Amino acid sequence: MAVMSYLEAIRETLRQELRRDSRIIIYGEDVGVRGGVFRVTEGLQKEFGEDRVMDSPLAEAAIIGTAIGAAVNGLRPIPEIQFADFIFPAINQIVQEAARIRYRSNGDFGVPLVIRAPFGGGVHGALYHSQSVEVFFAHVPGLKVVIPGTPYDAKGLLAAAVEDEDPVLYFEHKAAYRSLKGEVPEERYLIPIGKADLKRSGKDISIITYGLMVNYALKAAEALEKEGISAEILDLRSIRPLDVQMILETAKKTGKVLIVHEDNLTGGIGGEISALIAEHALFDLDAPIRRLAGPDVPAMPYSPPLEHAFMITSDKITEAARDLAKF
Amino acid sequence: MAQRELLSGQPVDWQKLKTMYYYMVLSRKLDERMWILNRQGKAAFVISCQGQEGAQVGVALAMDPSVDWITPYYRDLGVVLAFGMTAREVMLGFLAKRDDPSSGGRQMPSHYGLRAKHILTGSSPVTTQVTHAAGLALAMKVRKVPGITASFLGEGSTSQGEFHEALNFASVHKLPLIVVVENNGYAISVPQAHQMSVINVADRASGYGIPGVVVQGSDPLAVYEATVAARERALRGEGPTLIEAKTHRYTPHSSDDDDRSYRPEGELLREKADDPVVMFRNWLTTYQKWDDQQETALLKRVREVVDDATDYAEKAPYPDPSTLLDHVYYSPQV
Ligand SMILES: Cc1ncc(C[n+]2csc(CCOP(=O)(O)OP(=O)(O)O)c2C)c(N)n1
Ligand SMILES: [Mg+2]
Predict the structure, then answer these.
(1) Is the Cβ atom of B111 under 6 angstroms away from ligand 1?
(2) Does B161 sit within 8 Å of A58, measured CB to CB?
C-alpha cells in the first residue's frame, strides 16, 4: 500500500474516478494548467484534456449553476470552489436549487454533484481564507456534507460522493493537505456517507470530532494516555447525515462527551450532537456534555497572536478532556 | 505617450505630474520592500501593485479625497497611497500590527479601509466592493452631497454577477460612480481569453448605456484625463462610467503563487518594456521636466519614507490576544 498525503489521496482518487467514468468533468478557478491553487488537480488536465478538466470564469454562482444543469443532463460534475470562503456567491444555487430539485420535482430530477472546497484555518489565511462553512450546508435537507480526517478516508469518501445520486459537499482541510500522511490502497473502495469511524477506542471519555481535528484529538489522546486517561475518538466523517447510532454508543460507553470543532461554537454541529445525546442518552452521562469550538467571532484574524488565540490545538483538546475526565 | 500642453483642458501643472510620479515610485518601492520582508520571514503574505501603478495613481489623483470615496481591491497600493493613506499605515497592516488602521491586523495585508480617508473596508471575495460603491454613490445622490465613488477591480473579477448588477443599478439610477477595471491579463493563472470573449472589458459598457473607456495603464495622464471626464459626468448627474486600464502584473499573483507554470516564456519581459514607472519618467525627461539629479533626490526621499515605515511598523506591537472577541457587535466601550 502506498503512503500518501491527504492531498495526494484526493488527487489520485480524482484521477481514478476520471479514468473510470467518462461522465465526470472537473472545473473551477485555476484547476487547469495550474492544477488548482493548492495543486490538487495538478496533471489532470494534461491527462484528460481541456474538455474534462477546465478553467472556469471567476464566478462561483455560474460554476455551481452550470454544474447543476450538467448533472441533470447526464454528466457527473466535480466542480471546485477555490476556497470554501468563496462558496457564498453560489449559496443560492446550492441551497435553493441543488438541495431542493429532487424534492420539488417529486423525484423526477436529481443532482449528482460533488462540490469540493478547501476550508479551515491556522494557515495565515485570515478572515476569508480560513473559514469553516460546513454547518451552513449541514442545516439543509437534500445536501450531504462530508469532511475526511485521514488520507484513507479522503479516498473512500470522495469515491462515495461521486457515486452518490445527490449533491455532496466535500470539504478538505487546507492544513491537512500536506501535513497528514497515511496508507491508501490502490484499488477503489467506498466509505458509506453517514458512517462515523472509531479512530481510537477508550473508556474514560469520548471525543467526537471531524476533519483535521481528528488528528489533533489523536495527539491529545496520546498525551492523556500518559496521564492515565483513556480517550475514545469518534470521527464523524459526515456531518450530514450524522451517524446517530455511533454517537449514542460512544456517549453511553464512556458517559463523558467532549465535542470538538474548529467551526464556531454557536450553531456549530456540536449543538446538534449535544441535543441528540441529551434526547437519547441523558441518563447514561456522568458529566455535562462539553463543547470545544472556535470562538464566536465572524472569522479568523490574520495577526499571529490573534490567529493562535482562535485556533483549536491538541493542547487545548488535552486540557478540555482532562477537565472533563476529572468531573 | 503624446505631448501635452493641456491636461483635461487645463494648462499642464507640472508640479502635479511630479507628485504623480512620486506616488508611482513610492508604490513600487514600498511593494518591493514587502517582498523582501516576506522573504525574510517577517510577513506571511504579499500581493502586489507592480505594473499597475500608472493606472492606480492616475485615477486617484484625478479625484478629490475630501469629498470622494473609493472601494479599492487588494492590488491598489498606488490608489490608497495617492488617496491619502500613509506608508506607515500601509506597513502596519502589512505586518499585522495592532495599530493597522485598516483592520487592527485582522485582515490579510492589502485589504485597505479607513473611514477618515474615505476608503471603504474591503473583503477578499472579489467584486463585492462594486455594489458597495454603487451604494455609496446612491447615498451621495440621495443626500445631495458633492462627490463621487470610484470602485476598483481586476478583469477576472468582472465575471462575477455583481459587476453587472452594480453597473446596471448605477446606470438606471444615474449614480456618481466610476468603475475602474485594472486589466492585467490574468486572474491568478487564468488568462483573459478563458475569462471572457471580448478583448475590451469596456465594450460591455454599451450594455448598460454608459460610456466605456479604454486607457493604457502605463500612461497615467491618459488615465487621469479619462477619470476627470468620468468624474465630471458623474457630478453632472449623468451616471457611471466604466474605465478599463490595460496594465501588467509583474509578480506572481501573490507570494503563494508560482507563475512559471502558466505564463508563456518571454511575456513578462515584453511587458516590462511598457513599465508605467519607466515610461512616465522617460516622458517627463523628454519634456525636460525631469533629470538624473531629481531622480536621485526622489529615490532618496522615497527610500527614507519606506525605511521609516518599515522601522516604525516592525517596532509596533501586535494586537493583544485578549482583543480577539472585540468588535463583534457595537459596544460603546471599545
Ligand atoms: C469570490 C471569489 N472567488 C475566488 C477568489 C480567489 N481569487 C482571489 S484573486 C483571484 C483572481 C482575480 O483576478 P483579477 O480580477 O483579474 O484581479 P488581479 O488579481 O489579476 O488583479 C481569485 C480567483 C476570491 N478572492 N473571491
Ligand atoms: Mg487580472
Answers:
(1) no
(2) no
| CATH of range B14-323; options 2.60.120.480, 3.40.50.300, 3.10.450.50, 3.40.50.970 | 3.40.50.970
Within 8 A of A34 by CB-CB distance, chain B residues are 188-189, 261-262
Alpha helices in A164-266 (DSSP H): 176-179, 212-226, 244-254
B221–chain A nearest CA distance, Å: 31
Mutate to test the interface with A, among B37, B184, B190, B261 (most CBs of A within 10 A): B190
The domains located in chain A, with CATH, are 2-184 (3.40.50.970), 197-326 (3.40.50.920)
Residue A96 Cα to chain centre, angstroms? 21
Question: Cα B115–B120–B125 angle (5° rounding)?
Answer: 150
C-beta separation of A223 from A318 below 8 A: yes
Q: How many angstroms is it from B108 CA to the middle of ligand 1?
A: 14
How close B5 gets to chain A, by Cα (Å)? Answer: 42
Confidence of residue B334 (pLDDT cuts 50, 70, 90): low
**pTM of the entire predicted model:** 0.95
Per the CB < 8 A criterion, the answer to whether A182 and A152 are in contact is yes
Question: What does the domain layout of chain B look like in residue ranges?
Answer: 14-323
Strands (E), chain B: 6-7, 10-11, 69-71, 149-154, 177-183, 186-187, 190-191, 212-216, 241-246
Nearest CA in chain B to A58: B159
Of residues A135, A185, A147, the one with CA closest to residue A3: A185
Dist. CA B180 → ligand 2 center (Å): 12
Q: Which residues of B touch A126 (CB under 8 A)?
A: 106-108, 111, 124
pLDDT digits (tens, 9 = 90+) for B237-272: 999 999 999 999 999 999 999 999 999 999 999 999
> With a 6 A CB cut-off, is A80 part of the ligand 1 pocket?
no
| pLDDT at position B3 | 76
CB A86 within 8 A of CB A35: no
